[in-house]
Design a protein that fits this description.
Layout: H1 2-13, H2 27-38, H3 49-56, H4 60-70, H5 82-91
């Protein structure tokens, strides 16, 4: 019986954790995205996903996931007013 318990303890301690290893949403990458997304360098104080992607080398979807899930930031698009929309449509 002791041998059975001893084997069980050594087998469970040598096992790998389940699932894939996180490579993109690490604390270091979250800190980099937070610094770029919340920095006050820009006029509005925010940067676009593509700009952060270019500067960090992290994919745009991962940047989005970090901002939404890890940093709890709200993601939204600015809507055009009717006059701005008409100007935009007539320009093309």
């Amino acid at each position: 019986m002791n041998r059975l318990i001893k084997n069980y303890e050594t087998e469970t301690s040598n096992r790998k954790p389940p699932g894939r290893i996180r490579r993109a949403r690490t604390p270091a990458n979250s800190a980099r995205v937070s610094e770029l997304a919340c920095g006050q360098d820009d006029d509005l104080g925010t940067r676009k996903f593509r700009e952060i992607q270019r500067e960090t080398g992290i994919s745009r979807s991962t940047v989005r996931r970090i901002e939404k899930d890890d940093l709890k930031l709200k993601i939204f698009r600015r809507r055009l007013s009717d006059s701005d929309a008409k100007k935009w449509l007539h320009a093309y």
